[in-house]
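Hi Q.,

Before the meeting this afternoon, I wanted you to have the pyridoxal-5'-phosphate prediction in hand. No need to reply - just skim if you have a minute. The sequence and ligand are here:
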Amino acid sequence: MIAENLKIVREKISEKCSAVNRNSSEIKLIAVSKNFGLNDIQTAFDEGLRDFGENKAQELDAKFERLGNKITWHFIGNLQRNKVRFVVNTAEYIHSVDSLLLASEINKYAGKISKIQKILLQVKTSDEAAKSGIVAESEVRDIAFYCREFKNIELAGLMTIAPFTEDKELIRKSFGSLRRIRNKLNSEGLNLKELSMGMTSDFEIAIEEGATMLRIGSAIFGERDYSKDWKEKL
Ligand SMILES: *Cc1c(COP(=O)(O)O)cnc(C)c1O
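Predicted structure with the ligand bound:
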């Protein structure tokens, strides 16, 4: 099932890229494997996927222990400062940095293990109360510029989650505003390449709006079954 799903997702990505004159090689597909087990990850790996996303520090740590370096891990969840070391030890990218304090903690630990940690700033681009991320554009700018002072952080781009709605124009607005903020910061001297946006329900709009990283879970792995804990699936 995973192989077939993945084929469909890849076809949709490449069709959408042709439709809007983008090269699909500039878009990284991240398979969001949260709450899925090692067998599912291995199957997707065998189909050629190398980038996987997790949203819990402990779950990422456990999967890293078993699958390790052959995978490029992306951390996409809410990150508490006391879990920073697990994530810096394992993740190539941390997409969900939403405060200067968190960036500073990441920088400190990355320094201890002599790593340059790639991060993205998570921006709240909708009015939805449940979504996290930095709200004010001025704060995104302040944190982004401050990150240049951090020797062990590379700020790679911005990330957002679109509102949970059927309204495609609201979703487009959310992605479009992330792109505009990124472009503005780049015109002011930063060099932010990545726009991490687009999930199962909205990745085609995200491609139209310039996404460079798609975070797709259920379209690849199927519905997540939360009746069982991830620990039971390892
Ligand atoms: C779970 C999750 C995804 C993937 O969601 P799907 O709808 O299953 O594709 C993407 N981004 C974040 C931050 C997530 O937590």
